[in-house]
C-alpha cells in the first residue's frame, strides 16, 4: 500500500517535530518534508509533490492562504489541509476560496487530524465541527453572496509584496526575496497603494493587520 506523502508547513519547529512523530506512527502516512515559511512551502511542494500539505496560516514571508493559492495554481493535484489555531470566519473564507480542501483547528484530537488527512487524500472536504458552524453562519448571513473586498483587486504579486512590506522588509530586501528588480518592487508597491487608496507604509501595515495578512 502506498503511503500518503505529507509536507508540514508551520513556522514553529516544536510543532513540526511533534506532528512528524505523531503522523509517522501511522502505517499509511509519511512526512516527506518540512517548511518553516510560506515561500519554502511553495518551493518544496513543487520539488517533492506531496499528496497532502498540512498548512498553517500565520507564517512569515508568505502567509498560508497565499501559499495555498499559489500551490493550487502550480500543483493542482496537491491537496491542502489547513491546520491552525484560528477559528476566524475571515481566515476560513479566504482559505477555502484559495483552494484548501479542509480546515482543522490545532486543538483537534490526534485521531481527528489523521482522519482528516485520509479524507482529504480521497478528495473529500473536511472541516472541524466548530468551523462547520461558522461556515454555515457566514453563509446564512450573506446568503452565499459577499461584498467584494478591497484586497480582491490585488494581484498575487501585490499581495506578496504587501505582506513583506508589513513585515518590515525594505524594497531592496523584497527584491532579493522575490528575485525581481527594486524598480519592479516600487512599481508594485505604488500600484497596490493606489488600488487600496493608502498613502504610506504605516497605512499599509494597518491594512495588512486589519485584513489578517499578518499578525501582531
Looking at this protein, list some descriptive labels:
single chain, alpha/beta, Rossmann fold, Arc Repressor Mutant, subunit A, 52% helix
How would you describe the overall organization of this protein?
The chain is α/β, with parallel strands linked by helices and 216 residues long. The termini are far apart. It has helices at 13-23, 38-48, 64-74, 89-98, 110-121, 129-142, 156-166, 171-178, 182-196, 201-210, and strands spanning 4-9, 29-35, 52-55, 79-84, 102-105, 126-127. Helix content is 52%, strand content 13%. α1 links the parallel β1 and β2. The chain folds into 2 domains: 4-142, Response regulator (Rossmann fold, 3-Layer(aba) Sandwich); 150-210, Arc Repressor Mutant, subunit A (Orthogonal Bundle), CATH 1.10.10.10. The radius of gyration is 18 Å and the shape is elongated. Strands 2-1-3-4-5-6 form a 6-stranded parallel beta sheet, with helices on both faces. The model is unreliable at 144-148 (pLDDT under 50).
